[in-house]
Amino acid sequence: MENIKIRKMRDSDILQVIKIEEESFEYTYPPLLIMQVFSSFPEGFLVAEDENTKKLVGYIIGIIEWGHGHIVSIATSKEYRNKGIGTALLKKLEDTLFKKYNVGYIALEVRFNNVDARKFYYKRGYMDKRLLPRYYEDGTDAILMVKKNPYIKLPDTPVIVTMW
């Protein structure tokens, strides 16, 4: 994580974000959708920048839906993976959503067969909530994962996800 800075995305970053998206996923979000999400909630769109080269090496997109957080996408450039950048991006977004916006939980979907991504989220306190059969356009199942806001001290009540 040396020389990596986490910051809010700028309009001029979009081409680099799209490049990371395309190298990271077989099925990508269209650039227009990425820009629309950025326009609707810019605080939830963070990038990781190598301060030496000024190159973007990762991003995370988060939004607020029905008063709860939702991670839309997270990716790191191949040559920068397993260096803590994804963890730093996720932590920064969680801080924004949990502390500033006081969301009750953050949800995300991950491909059922993406074991590495699921392990990444398990290590960071996310838990499986339910299976979403044939969620992705290619027919692949997803797992809905959820993390409760650790700063809200309530009795141990279940998380009720109302988005699906």
From TrEMBL:
Family annotation (InterPro entries): AcTrfase_RimI/Ard1, Acyl_CoA_acyltransferase, Ard1-like, GNAT_dom
Listed EC numbers: 2.3.1.267
GO cellular component: NatA complex
GO molecular function: protein-N-terminal-alanine acetyltransferase activity
Alphabetical list of Pfam families matching this protein: Acetyltransf_1
Segments forming a coiled coil: none
SUPFAM superfamilies (alphabetical): Acyl-CoA N-acyltransferases (Nat)
Domain N-acetyltransferase residues, every copy: 4-150
Record keywords: Acyltransferase, Transferase
Keyword Transferase applies: yes
NCBIfam families to which the protein is assigned, alphabetical: rimI (TIGR01575)
Name of the molecule in the record: Ribosomal-protein-alanine N-acetyltransferase
Species in which this protein is naturally found: Methanofervidicoccus abyssi
